[in-house]
Amino acid sequence: MHQRAYEGQCTAEENRHTAADSSLGNPRPTLFALALGTFAIGTGEFGSNGIIQLFAADLDVSIPVATHAITAYAIGVVIGSPAITLLAARVNRRTLLLGLIVLFLVGNTLSALATNIELLVVFRFVAGSVQGAFFGAGAVVAAYTYGPGRGGKAFATVMGGLTVATIIGSPLGTFIGQNAGWRTMYWTVVAIGLLAGAALVTWLPRTDDLRGGSVANELSALRRLDVWLMSAVAALGISSIFAVYTFIAPFVTDAAMQDASLIPIALAVFGLGMAVGNHLGGRVADGYEHRGLIRGYGGVLALLVVIGMAGGNLWILLPCLFGVGATMMFAIPTIQVRLTGFAPDAPTLMGALNLAALNLANSLGAIGGAITLDAGWGTLSTVWAGFVLTSAGLLLYVVAVARAKPAAGPGLLPATARPDVPAR
Q1: In this predicted model, what pLDDT tens digit does every residue of 327-363 receive, in sequence order?
Q2: Total Cβ atoms within 10 A of residue 91
Q3: What is the per-residue pLDDT across 14-30, written as a single tens digit (0 to 9) for each?
Q4: Rounded to whole angstroms, how far apart are CA atoms 241 and 300?
């Protein structure tokens, strides 16, 4: 999902080392440890959406109020990703990753012990603050471990853990929550996190080559307007995926009037759509500057209308869930390529800022959906909040960002990329 957001960072890391650095033995155990970490993080993030009805009932709050816990996690990523990336810039990446997995375990342990919604909101924020920094540090270690010229491939393997989390981890977490209680879902995430921590301790390389560096170049990127505009396009446009994903459980039980046992299946269908869309979107992003984003956003808008009007029918809802996951993920690789292209000299911060934008979208989607539910517009009304937000993101891109040219440097779009929107 986020591979291309960190390709510039992988390239920058590869350039720090000579070919001699690549003789580090078998890289697979290290990549497995990192992938297990991203699987644990993804299961905790996406699994929370599947148990929202459970902790809402147990903590005696409405579903709109319960979404505050989902929003808090996203805000934790938005604030924590850039902040930890900058504050820990000089810390050895091995040390940083081990510290982050400890913080992840603390956040999820406390989530399992929360006695009211206020505490759960705080603890989900803590858990979320880990995510972006873990992915960023993982990109460095993956690139170093695999050696020059193969960093992107290595990090794709690492991020495979997040893809597996959307297809298997989240549905499994929901199933566990339904049958053993929502707290057990978080205890399961803690157990996976402990396994990931043990793997990281065992297989992360101990070397000064993974030391941090200066953040001066990273910070210079924040002065570029195109960076902020592209981040806004991502935050607004991708929000519709969370205006749907956050509320899949009530879509199935309240709108389609089906048994809760179908919720994990609906989550898995959505996850499969995301995996397919990400694969196809990556190919399109390599060949075209704009096509992936414009077609992805346009496709999801059409599907949101179908869900809003006919999503009460399960046989319409399930294909549309697959379609929303696929079309939105079709757009995300283009967003990531464009964002890193605007600031090729700041790959680490751009990776964190990109992930922050995606999780701001998570927050906006959850908040927008909660507003429509609070207004009494019905369970499926959350898709209209997503429709408005994604429309705003598409309009902003076409009007203000599409014709902007990437800066020269390692994050530049491939030479084969062809513009879909004519230059001025």
Answers
A1: 988 888 788 778 767 876 665 666 667 777 887 888 8
A2: 16
A3: 555 544 344 456 778 99
A4: 8
Give residue for tokens 């909101």.
121
Assign 286 a pLDDT band (cuts: 50, 70, 90): low
373 pLDDT higher than 70: yes
Phi/psi-derived region of residue 118, left when phi > 0, alpha when psi is between -120 and 50, beta in every other case: alpha
Cβ pair 420, 291 in contact under 8 A: yes
Average pLDDT over residues 177-191: 95
Residue 281 contacts residue 296 (beta carbons within 8 Å): yes
Place of tokens 């934008």: 357
What is the distance between the alpha carbons of residues 203 and 200, in angstroms, rounded to a whole number? Answer: 5
Structure tokens at 108: 């999820």
pLDDT(196) > 70: yes
Greater confidence (218 vs 37) lies with: 37
CA distance 149 to 154: 10
Instruction: State phi, psi for 422 to the nearest 5 degrees.
Output: -60, 145
3-class state of residue 418 by DSSP = strand
The secondary structure of residue 404, as a DSSP letter, is: P
Burial class (CB in 10 A: 0-12, 13-18, 19+), 279: middle
Write the CA distances from 225 to 221, 324, 346, integer angstroms.
9, 30, 14
pLDDT, residue 37, reads 94
The answer to whether the beta carbons of residues 99 and 92 sit under 8 Å apart is no
Rounded CA-CA distance 147/160 in Å is 19
CA 288 to each of CA 236, 281, 283, 294, 322: distance values in angstroms, whole numbers, following the listed order? 22, 10, 9, 11, 24
% helix, strand, coil for the chain, step of 5: 80, 0, 20
Tokens of 347: 């790959």
* pTM for the predicted model, two decimal places: 0.76
Q: Are 280 and 81 in contact (CB under 8 A)?
A: no
